[in-house]
Predict the 3D structure of the following.
Amino acid sequence: MLRFPLFAKIYCTKRCNLRCEHCYLEDYTGDMSSEDIKALIDYFKLKGVNWIGILGGEPFIRDDIYDIMSHITSRALFMTVSTNGTLEGAYDFAALAELKPQLQVSIDGSTPQINDRLRGVGAFRRTLAFIDGLNTHDIPFSIGYTVSRANQDQIRDMAVLASELRARSLRLEIFIPIAEGKAMTRDLSVTAAELAKLEGAIAELMNEFPFIVSPFVNTSQCGAGIHTIVVNIDRTLSACDLLAEKERTLPFGDITEIADLWLNDPVFARYRGLNGHRCRLFEILI
Ligand SMILES: C[S@@+](CC[C@H](N)C(=O)[O-])C[C@H]1O[C@@H](n2cnc3c(N)ncnc32)[C@H](O)[C@@H]1O
Ligand code: SF4
């Protein structure tokens, strides 16, 4: 067992300009302070973390997002930043080209109709304009695609779109109905039979499109509690970010407590010794 994780995901904000139908966030208020984020980054560097993931909410809604990214770069850490790509005016392509985050841009359908039903009217157009800017500035990116009942027939079309848009990879996740307050979430869930079919189709499509990445097909890629830790904006920790709204440690006081929580808190312990395990989220899904 690792004495400390290698990959730390930080939820920097719960604010977002969108209200996607499938979103697991329960509310859209609150930020982690810039000082707290930087202190976490420094602590993680000290403890041997080599990769920081910045998540939200929408990270680019923060005025200080480039400052946070610079801080990560200055500590010689790799970083991933997830974005919906729709915040026109918030993207500084020159800064992105210099800071070189691994960007993950969400698209949930290969047409405006399918994507915007989930992500809101105009989202597809704005995200593609963002991607156009990335390509113009030679900034690499991946596409994140959350597969649900509303877009499960899109896998091939999404692979073609991602290829046409010159994405480095197409990262698939399965929609998990974990936002209890949202009535529509059950409607978006795939059934057990659909899921089995999807897994087969994804595995086959991976031969044709090797840039497809899916932890749901190959669960050994999942690092929850093994090498990955999630810090929520309320100073709690989680192992799996899809479960970040639900399964958390108690709030930590000083950041140095994180090492002990990682080693001893049941939130992490339950993920260990399960090599090749089926993702725990399936228990919720089916
Ligand atoms: C929470 S968002 C944060 C970053 C940014 N706002 C975005 O949409 O990319 C990160 C990823 O989680 C996915 N996601 C949101 N709710 C989900 C759910 N209930 N099940 C699975 N994935 C979900 C989103 O589609 C997105 O790809
Ligand atoms: S999935 Fe991302 S863009 Fe959509 S509402 Fe949630 S945080 Fe915002």
Summary: Residues 16, 18-20, 23, 25, 56-58, 84 surround iron/sulfur cluster (ligand 2) (CB under 6 Å).
